[in-house]
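User: two proteins, same treatment. go.

Assistant:
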Amino acid sequence: MQAESKSLARRDSEEEAGRYTGWSFLTNHTHVLVCLVRDPDLTVRTLALRVGITERSVQRILHDLEESGIVRRTREGRCNHYEVEPSIRLRHPLESHHTVGELLDALR
């Protein structure tokens, strides 16, 4: 029964990601951040399905976000837990007067 519900959740996530084709105002980095704020214990696989990108792309994005101090990863047993640091300033000069937290608040 549990395998069936996981299968249904995976299919729903795949369908949800599949609906959004073409371009978007937000980057995949932002999509990953939004997902992590909503559920900090998501797996790379689930993030990939929700955002609609490959697991390898999610791994690269997580690496970027960790390197810049925006995301902190801690191991909890065999799982990862992600914490977003809202006080970090956005990187691009056009947005650098805003923080990650401000961006995420605007997207809630």
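Protein 2:
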Amino acid sequence: MLKVKPNQPKAGEPATSTARYVDAANVAGRSITLRIDDRKPLEVADPRARRLLWQLVEHIETLEAVSEGLEQVRQGRTIPLEELDRGLRKKHGIPG
């Protein structure tokens, strides 16, 4: 699993996902420092490299989410489509 340990959020700010953290740094033009285990930190300052890093992080998080969903299916933690449809229609006041 990919974990991010950005600078601690300021008081009152929520923690963020890795992709959001990288995206926010990219938009703000801030460099991103990567640390893997005990290796020397790597600073990503180039705008193109930050964009590519964001795309990679987003892809990894998507793959993790799909993997978690498949594991839920394997464990039988699913609901029939009809039940989901009824629940969503009721929740949002959609007739049918």
